[in-house]
Amino acid sequence: xxxxxxxxxxxxxxxxxxxxxxxxxxxxxxxxxxxxxxxxxxxxxxxxxxxxxxxxxxxxxxxxxxxxxxxxxxxxxxxxxxxxxxxxxxxxxxxxxxxxxxxxxxxxxxxxxxxxxxxxxxxxxxxxxxxxxxxxxxxxxxxxxxxxxxxxxxxxxxxxxxxxxxxxxxxxxxxxxxxxxxxxxxxxxxxxxxxxxxxxxxxxxxxxxxxxxxxxxxxx
Amino acid sequence: xxxxxxxxxxxxxxxxxxxxxxxxxxxxxxxxxxxxxxxxxxxxxxxxxxxxxxxxxxxxxxxxxxxxxxxxxxxxxxxxxxxxxxxxxxxxxxxxxxxxxxxxxxxxxxxxxxxxxxxxxxxxxxxxxxxxxxxxxxxxxxxxxxxxxxxxxxxxxxxxxxxxxxxxxxxxxxxxxxxxxxxxxxxxxxxxxxxxxxxxxxxxxxxxxxxxxxxxxxxxxxxxxxxxxxxxxxxxxxxxxxxxxxxxxxxxxxxxxxxxxxxxxxxxxxxxxxxxxxxxxxxxxxxxxxxxxxxxxxxxxx
Lengths: 220, 302
Hints:
The complex is a heterodimer.
Chain A (H helix, E strand, L loop, with lengths): L12 E3 L3 H18 L5 E7 H10 L1 H9 L12 H8 L2 E6 L8 E9 L2 E11 L2 E7 L2 E5 L5 E7 L4 H11 L4 E8 L5 E8 L5 H8 L4 E7 L2
Parallel strand pairs in A: 2-3
Antiparallel strand pairs in A: 2-4, 4-5, 5-6, 6-7, 8-10, 8-11, 9-10
Helix pairs in contact in A: 1-3
Chain B lengths: L7 H11 L3 H13 L3 H23 L12 H10 L7 H18 L3 E3 L9 H13 L3 H21 L4 H4 L5 H15 L4 H13 L17 H20 L8 H14 L16 H11 L12
Helix pairs in contact in B: 2-7, 3-5, 3-7, 4-5, 5-6, 5-11, 6-9, 6-11, 7-9, 9-10, 9-11, 10-11, 10-12
């Protein structure tokens, strides 16, 4: 089931004109910002398919920038997101792409600041619902429905067990989990969706595990 | 994910077996899936209803989109109703005007509630606030109207599509009109099965509807398609309440919609590369709105 809640059908409350092109786009931007963990200084946004064709008329561009500024789908400041970004010193550019994407509404966000960069591919699947399908080159499936943990780690035996053990010790239930790696023995990523709210203690404990290099969270 | 229903057949069977309205099954499923309380769920839908009401009121005062393509038609239709000359009936035209009002607000980047999408956001509230004057529902019944619409939309979203880019306008205004028809039936005292029949009757008449927005905007022909979706919803509900049934079962109609969407060329799925968007006037309007020198977003902003 792609859609879980009745409020994905009757909702979201949003700024018009398009749930997939405006609200879904805002959510992709906001998830990117949340995963990045702070306000990016710059953003390069590649648009594919219908996003590339019609983004200006739908306000997809202002919506993604609004999301990067942490605005929700119903935040009226979405309309002034370009100006707001300028005032905060965030530069951005949009690159409409010709090539076929995995979904008609696809955006690749490359964002960064002096401390680092992040690349995220999001798809807007209709009605304001979106999925993250790639993060820093790792394919994944992240709906944003559940609180989620993202754990970057070295591809070593026992790391997955130690991470899931810490989660179990907190009395948390794993709803969905994916593991991906670039090359055998190199950098790997765990995406773990859980039923409960993730707190700072859990993040700290995971961060201190051997071979874990970075932990971030995406709370609902 | 544990669900009570994944198809309309299962939804109707549950409602009949437990002697509950479809809206109640949707509320129970929402509680099951999200682990939230009934009060939280009702309160959120109540809020959505308030947003819809505000959008209708705003649109009926007259709004204009930034492109200038749409706006003001809801007022024209209300004035026409007031003149007493409506041929298709005041209730239908009231629903039409309120659907248009909502979508004009949407096109003007106002606040709306997607039902199931923003492009199709006029139909469910448009019909609701029109039949309200005829059926005098309680606030609870109005909220239930949204849950019933949502129950059918849930099935469509999970078994077909509610996105114009994926499935054409049949997936957006088609789904919305069909969802509204099912909800009208419940509010008017019809059975769950009659809701399903109303849904099918309307959906069958929205099949093949392409998504061809002029200049890629959610304005032309979207606003007027919401108007017609609202009118079809009322007629479909009336037909089902009269006892008319669909020869093709609802889930098969939904599947047909999905397959039609899959085989529809991408030019007719929200890309603005076909249909009305590529008529001479459609192209001229696009050039007027997004002509060269106005490509603000392509530049680097610093």
